[in-house]
Amino acid sequence: MYELIQAGERSWYIDSPAKIGIVDAGNGEVCLIDTGNDGDAAKKALRILNERGWKLRAVFNTHAHVDHIGGNNYLQSHTDCPIYAPPLERFFAEQPGIGVSILFGATVPKELHNKFFIAKGSRVLPFSPEVFPEGLEPIPLPGHSHDMYGFRAPDGVVFLADSLVSAATLEKYQVSFVFNVGVYLETLEKVKTMSAPLFVPSHAEATEDIVPLAQKNIDKALEIADFIVGFCREPADHEQVLKALFDRYSLRMSLQQYVLVGCTARSYMSWLRDTGRVEIICEKDRLLWRSV
After folding, report:
1. Quick one: which H or E segment has residue 48?
2. Pairing between β-strand 20-26 and β-strand 83-85 as defined by DSSP bridges
3. What is the distance between the alpha carbons of residues 100 and 121, in angstroms, rounded to a whole number?
4. In whole angstroms, what is the distance from residue 116 CA to residue 118 CA?
5. What is the pLDDT of residue 99?
6. Which residues pair with 152 in a beta bridge?
7. Burial 250-288 (b: 16+ CB within 10 A, else e)
8. Sign of CA dihedral 31, 37, 40, 41
9. What is the pLDDT of residue 121?
10. Phi/psi zone of residue 131: left (φ > 0), alpha (ψ -120 to 50 degrees), beta?
11. Coil, strand or helix at 204
12. Alpha helix locations (H) across the chain?
């Protein structure tokens, strides 16, 4: 864990729970793609940079989930490096508690005020063309998060952020977090058309052929959608749909899982409503979802 692995002539990644990308920016400088899930991850990343004699030029956050921005504060306080993020994600990176409140739908209970849900804030600037080193290309990959981006390095290696997860993760957790299902599926179809010498997802092994894994993620999303439609043949409220998902996929309820899977379930239901597969009805002061 936290081993430096060369991805291409001018790119590397640190093999960690959420991979940290490294891109050569020239003149002994490098840029990081994400900072890991906490200060310890960032500390290890900075040690690797120092051992190689690299100077940190900038950090580019793919999106503002805690396992990708958790090291921002540490790196900024120790190097004063600029940090950039997509416009919408920038706001959540600067005010991490707001993103969790959106997932929960209100002010979150104190139990969620921990490093697994809320990172320390950092000063973050928006993406703009002039901040990227020559040859580093941002790639919009929304769906998992509001405004997520990946990157193509100057050597062609593509960092895919959380646009997909590994087959093992799908098997273990089944319902991976998605904020906008329709856009997420569009992004996965886009990923299938990409060419690169190597693809580096944040939560899967690097691979030269991303198509099979992208299709596995698509298939799982469509399976979940079909299950919800089938369950809603009898009108059901959100809590009933959520329990059905936990039962179907042998998930264990906790406050954390309620927030993550609950938000994902609402995302599926919204998409199914917008695509005409379920409808919303109100009966006896209950909002119910019913298959069409």
Report:
1. helix 39-52
2. unpaired
3. 13
4. 6
5. 87
6. 137, 158
7. ebeeeeeeebbbbbbbbbbbbbbeeeebbeeeeeeeeeb
8. negative
9. 87
10. alpha
11. coil
12. 39-52, 66-69, 72-79, 87-94, 96-104, 167-173, 181-192, 211-231, 238-248, 255-274
Helix (H, G, I), strand (E, B) or coil at 277: coil
Using the structure block, give the residue that is written with the tokens 């179907």. 248
- 218-271 pLDDT, tens digit each: 999 999 999 999 999 999 999 999 999 999 999 999 999 999 999 999 999 999
Structural domain boundaries enclosing 216: 3-221
CATH number of the domain encompassing residue 230: 1.10.10.10
Residues 155 and 248 both lie in one domain: no
* Displacement of CA 85 from its chain's centroid (Å): 13
Amino acid at 194: M
CA-CA distance, 223 to 137, in Å (whole number)?
Answer: 33
Q: Residue with structure tokens 């960092």? A: 159
Backbone φ and ψ of 126, nearest 5°: -75, 150
Boundary of a domain, candidates 200, 221, 242: 221
What count of other Cβ atoms lies within 10 Å of the Cβ of residue 88? 16
Which H or E run includes 109? none
* Length, in residues, of the chain: 292
Give the residues of the chain that fall short of pLDDT 50.
none
State the total domains in the chain: 2
> Per the confidence metrics, is the pTM higher than 0.70?
yes
Give the distance from CA 233 to its chain's centroid. 32
Residue identified by tokens 């960690």 is 16
Angle at alpha carbon of residue 95, lines to 139 and 86, rounded to 5°: 15
Distance between CA atoms of 59 and 81, rounded to whole angstroms?
Answer: 7
Alpha-carbon gap, residue 165 to 174, rounded angstroms = 10
Residue where a domain stops, chosen among 221, 253, 283: 221
Distance, first Cα to last Cα, the chain: 48
Which among 132, 118, 221 is positioned nearest to 229, based on CA atoms?
A: 221
Nearest partner of 117 among 91, 92, 144, judged by Cα = 92
- Measured over the CA atoms of residue 212, residue 214, residue 216 and residue 222, the dihedral's sign is negative
